[in-house]
Design brief:
- The protein contains 8 helices and 25 strands.
- It has 366 residues and is an alpha+beta fold.
- A hairpin with a 4-residue loop joins strand 9 and strand 10.
- Helix 5 packs parallel to helix 7.
- The chain is elongated.
- The N terminus is likely disordered.
Length: 366
């Protein structure tokens, strides 16, 4: 008996319909074939034809859409990528300035310099050489000027994202390119720093009325603690700038932009993210009885540093009965955290069976 293998992708749709009709018609008139009952052959051929028909009709060739729009942190960049001689190009100035770089143009040497903090990138029209802090990198094709716009290969935008700790993603179905900061907390823009300084200048009364601190308090997810449940705040760099600016204003001092930038550089060098905790207990040495874990999907991240756990707690009569209260600072390595995914901060008190967990949605905080 011969076996035929049919490639459904090469068979027109109306032919497959005819195959189904023919097998139904002919097998009603064929009593036996090779010792196999006709009804079994009939079912087999009908099933085969239907499978081929389904395969043909459900196989859709999806063509990837070339990038047609670029977004940074949800905001559309006012420049569309263009295709030139089969190569995708992007306009240099709008993209680099949106990413926080200062762009300078030297018409005599036809050179563009983009700099941000201690990062300096230089490129020349017509040259494939790109200098990154003096180190040569190759990008092809070379930058060119078209209709008074400096256009660079899309690889240059990817290079800037790599150098500046940003993530670039291209959705091939929509043609939308999105750029995000890997860690928005340690890479505040100048506008974000200025905003934080202005909020702090308004003083503690304004912060209290606006419930600023309460917006950074982590919500409880679950746990077995009630009486000794701690209060936890996500102490982002933005939050700390507001806090310092507020404190300076009460002392009739000014917290400058340069001081705040230097503070951010220091935090970035340490690469730590900090939580402020007020822990409660009936035991003055509570610091020796607690621990923390940051859980993100299937990963468990241990604290890099716990400050204050060696101290003795203070006694208080205000909450909600006489108890001991201990302020703590808990820091985690920011490099181990994916800030585009939710996490859970778990507080353990006197062992793993007594805990409380807090929801941590990074998108909610500045």
């Amino acid at each position: 008996m011969s076996i035929f293998i049919i490639n459904a992708s090469n068979i027109p749709l109306h032919y497959l319909i005819l195959i189904m009709q023919y097998t139904t018609y002919s097998m009603e008139r064929t009593p036996l074939l090779g010792g196999i009952p006709s009804n079994m052959i009939k079912r087999f051929l009908i099933l085969t034809a239907m499978t081929l028909l389904f395969t043909l009709t459900c196989t859709v060739q999806v063509t990837a859409q070339p990038p047609k729009q670029i977004y940074f942190e949800g905001f559309r960049i006012n420049s569309q990528p263009v295709m030139e001689n089969g190569t995708l190009l992007a306009e240099l100035r709008p993209v680099t300035e949106t990413l926080g770089f200062n762009v300078e143009w030297n018409p005599l040497t036809q050179t563009v310099t983009a700099h941000k903090d201690d990062l300096i990138v230089e490129l020349k029209i017509g040259s494939e050489n790109v200098l990154v802090n003096g180190v040569n990198r190759k990008l092809s094709p070379a930058p060119e000027i078209i209709n008074d716009r400096t256009l660079v290969t899309f690889q240059f935008i990817e290079l800037l994202c790599e150098l500046d700790d940003k993530i670039i993603d291209w959705n091939e179905n929509t043609g939308i390119v999105t750029i995000k900061r890997k860690n928005k907390f340690l890479t505040l823009t100048e506008d974000e720093i200025l905003e934080a300084l202005e909020i702090g200048k308004k003083g503690p009364g304004a912060l209290e009325r606006n419930r600023f601190k309460s917006r950074y308090k982590l919500p409880v997810e679950e746990g077995k603690l009630w009486r000794w449940r701690p209060d936890i705040w996500f102490k982002t760099p933005y939050y700390q700038i507001v806090e310092t600016s507020c404190k300076k204003s009460t002392e009739f001092k000014k917290y400058t932009l340069e001081e705040a930038k230097e503070f951010i550089r220091m935090l970035k060098a340490k690469n730590l993210l900090t939580f402020e905790i007020t822990a409660y207990s009936d035991y003055i040495g509570i610091g020796k009885k607690i621990n923390f874990i940051l859980k993100q999907e299937d990963r468990l991240i241990l604290p890099q540093k716990i400050t204050g756990n060696d101290e003795l707690a203070d006694i208080t009569s205000s909450w909600p009965f006489p108890t001991y209260k201990l302020p703590l600072m808990v820091s985690f390595n920011a490099g181990e955290i994916d800030f585009h995914k939710k996490a859970v901060l778990v507080y353990f008190y006197r062992g793993e069976n007594t805990f409380v967990s807090y929801t941590l949605d990074f998108s909610r905080y500045k």
